[in-house]
Specification:
About 25% of the residues lie in helices and about 15% in strands. The protein is of the alpha+beta class and about 350 residues long. Among the domains are: about 10-85, Roll (Ubiquitin-like (UB roll)); about 225-280, Single Sheet (N-terminal domain of TfIIb); about 285-320, no CATH class; about 320-358, no CATH class. The strands form six sheets. A four-stranded mixed β-sheet has the order 2-1-4-3, covered by helices on one side. A three-stranded antiparallel β-sheet has the order 9-10-11. A two-stranded antiparallel ribbon has the order 5-8. Strand 14, helix 8 (about 335-345) and strand 15 form a beta-alpha-beta unit. The model is unreliable at about 1-5 (pLDDT under 50).
Length: about 350
C-alpha cells in the first residue's frame, strides 16, 4: 500500500510579507526562496550553516539581539525584519572591520567584479575602514599548479575549510593559530599537495574574495571581459554542468553554476582545470589517414569509409575476435551503449571494454 507524505510548512512574516516556508528551513533559506536579499559572506547552499561573518543578522520579534538568519530555523508565526537602520549600521561596521585586515588591491585583483566582499562594501557605502592597526602579512608561496592562495585577502569565513571537509572529503584545510594569528591553513603550513589536496578547486569555487584563485586564469581577463557559456562537461558520463569562460575566442577558465545540474556547483579537477586541450596547438582538427607511412588530412566521409572497409577486411580474414572496442570515459552513456551494440551485433565479438574506471 502506498503511503503519501505531505511536507510540513510554516507561515512567517518577513518585512511585512507573509511567506510559506518548509519546516526546518533557516530564515536565510526562506528569504532567498522569496528573492528577499540578505547580505552574507560565509553562507554557501552546499554547506551547513555556520554564522561566522555576522552579515546576515536580522531582527526577530520577541528575540533578543540580532540573530544570524543562516543559523535560525523558521517557526510558525515568526515575524522577521531584514532591513532597518540598526541592521544597516551593524552590517556596515562588520564590513569595515573585515576591510581593516584586508589587502586593498581591488584595482588589480583577479576577483574584481566577482568579489562578495566588494559587493557588500558597495552596498553599505564603505570606501575605507576607520579601524587601523596590524594586518596579516602572509607571502604567496603556494606551488599548487592550479590554485593561488593569498591569505592577506582571507576574511575567515571558513568556507574553504568546510567545503573540503563536508563536500570533497580530504580536509586539507583547518584553522591554525589563535586570535589574530588564526588563519585557514594546512597543518604546519605545508604545501597543499603535500597534505592530500586533490586540486579539485572546490575551495576556489566557494571563496567569496580573491584569497583563493585559479592559477590558470590569472591575468587572462577580467570578469566583465569574458563570455560565459553553460554546457556539459565531457570528461565522464556523469554529465556535470559547467560554465566555460572565454575571452577573444579562447577558453580562459571553467566553473560550475550553483543550483544547476547534477553537480550543483561542484566539479572535479578535470572538469574545472582540464580545458587547456581545447586551445592546444597540437590538437587534431581534421581526420588523418596514413598513406605511404605518412599521416595526411582526409574528409570525414573518407575517413569513416576507410575505417569501415578495414574493419570488414580484418573480420573476414581473421575472424570477429580479432577486433575489439573500447569506450571512452568522456563519451555519454548513450554513445558507449551504441559502441558495445556495434561491436557485439555488427562485428560479432564480445571484446568490449571501457576506460571510465581510469
Amino acid at each position: 500500500m502506498s503511503k503519501t507524505t505531505k511536507t510540513d510548512t510554516v507561515t512567517i512574516m518577513v518585512d511585512g510579507l507573509a511567506l510559506e516556508a518548509k519546516a526546518g528551513q533557516t530564515v536565510l533559506e526562506a528569504c532567498r526562496n522569496a528573492d528577499i536579499h540578505v547580505p552574507t559572506l560565509c553562507a554557501d547552499p552546499r554547506l551547513a550553516p555556520y554564522g561566522a561573518c555576522r552579515l546576515c543578522i536580522v531582527e526577530i520579534e520577541g528575540v533578543r539581539g540580532y540573530p544570524t538568519s543562516c543559523t535560525t530555523v523558521v517557526s510558525d508565526g515568526m515575524n522577521v525584519t531584514t532591513r532597518s537602520e540598526a541592521l544597516f549600521d551593524l552590517r556596515k561596521t562588520v564590513v569595515e572591520l573585515l576591510l581593516s585586515d584586508h589587502k586593498m588591491d581591488c584595482l588589480t585583483c583577479e576577483s574584481a567584479g566577482a568579489c562578495a566582499l566588494q559587493d557588500v562594501a558597495y552596498e553599505h557605502g564603505v570606501k575605507s575602514s576607520p579601524f587601523v592597526g596590524e594586518k596579516h602579512k602572509v607571502d604567496v608561496t603556494e606551488n599548487n599548479p592550479a590554485i593561488i592562495r593569498d591569505l592577506e585577502k582571507c576574511i575567515m569565513c571558513g568556507r574553504c575549510v568546510r567545503i573540503c571537509e563536508q563536500v570533497e572529503g580530504p580536509s586539507v584545510y583547518g584553522f591554525t593559530g589563535r586570535g589574530f594569528d588564526s588563519l585557514p591553513n594546512t597543518p604546519f603550513g605545508v604545501q597543499m599537495l603535500e597534505n592530500g589536496c586533490e586540486t579539485c578547486g572546490q575551495c576556489v569555487s566557494t571563496c567569496p574574495t580573491g584569497a583563493l584563485r585559479p592559477r590558470m586564469s590569472e591575468g587572462k581577463g577580467r570578469t566583465w571581459e569574458k563570455t560565459y557559456t553553460d554546457t556539459t562537461c565531457s570528461y565522464c558520463a556523469v554529465g556535470c554542468t559547467i560554465t566555460l569562460e572565454a575571452k577573444d575566442g579562447k577558453l580562459v577558465g571553467a566553473s560550475a553554476p550553483l543550483g544547476k545540474g547534477v553537480n550543483n556547483g561542484n566539479l572535479c579537477v578535470k572538469g574545472r582545470y582540464g580545458y587547456d586541450y581545447v586551445n592546444h596547438p597540437d590538437r587534431l582538427t581534421t581526420p588523418l589517414i596514413r598513406r605511404d607511412g605518412k599521416l595526411e588530412p582526409a574528409s570525414w566521409d573518407e575517413a569513416l569509409d576507410y575505417v569501415a572497409d578495414r574493419l570488414r577486411e580484418i573480420r573476414d580474414e581473421h575472424g570477429p575476435d580479432a577486433i575489439g572496442g573500447r569506450g571512452a570515459c568522456r563519451s555519454t552513456n548513450e554513445e558507449n551503449y551504441l559502441l558495445q551494440k556495434f561491436i557485439r551485433a555488427a562485428i560479432g565479438t564480445n571484446n568490449i571494454d571501457n576506460s571510465a574506471r581510469l
